[in-house]
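[agent] plan:
  1. take the single chain provided in the ticket
  2. run structure prediction with default settings
  3. attach structure tokens to the ticket
  4. add a short note for the reviewer (M.T.)
[agent] executing step 1
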Amino acid sequence: MSKPAVKPAAADHAAEVRRGERFEFGANWTRFLEVLNERRIAQAVDGLADMLGTRDLTGKTFVDVGSGSGLSSLAARRLGASVRSFDYDPQSVACTAELKRRYYPDDPAWLVERGSALDPDFLAGLGTFDIVYSWGVLHHTGAMWRALELVAPMVGPGGTLFIAIYNDQGAWSGRWKKIKQLYCSGPAGKALVSGVAIPYWILRGAAADIVWMRNPLTRYREYGRERGMSLTHDWHDWLGGYPFEYAKPEGILDFYRKRGFRLDRLATAGGSVGCNEFVFTRAD
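[agent] step 2 finished; step 3 output follows
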């Protein structure tokens, strides 16, 4: 795959959105911050700690590649890490900055800025980190394998790389890519996709609740235990998440093994088109 031109300016991001080439992740996260509470933050802290295998990141440096809402950055800071957050989407940068303002104002141990995971000069200027984290981001850059390549040198010797990448489901993944393109094509496409998919998901969930005799509200209340997210915001993130790429777990494993990384923890999507989570350690 050829390396695309990197366009770091906010105006270029807006132009990509207008052309239907990119979903407005930041706009979705802006709405998510309206419902963010301590319970969801605690869930995000627990999820991050579980995958990293520790609840104490004191003295560790942590970079959030594609910080989105800023929730994972906040979780890392609560675990004691010094955090560097960046995102390509200007509104996502604003969301992360807002969380820092709410919970860690004037904290020099948490820096928030704008940057691209496809900009090698920007990434090189950040240096190396104990933990490089990018959950559900690199497959939305438009050049996933290039992004996977560029984040590897950011991991210091003996450091940790924690990424989540969409699972390759063959034809199903190809169909989802077309759906996401339609969603991002304009207001009509967004209305059509949302009008079909969201009622279907609601009815399917309600039917399962009836069969298993569960309280229909329980699923919504308990959603997000792993990352503290909101179900409705994740629905739109999933429907509109474009650009969209994916990989089989063995493809990611082989890619990083060749670059001196050892797999420590793997959580697969279980046959769905969700994300496979990988925690690697870089050899000293």
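[agent] step 4 note for reviewer: Confidence is low (pLDDT under 50) at residues 1-8.
[agent] ticket updated
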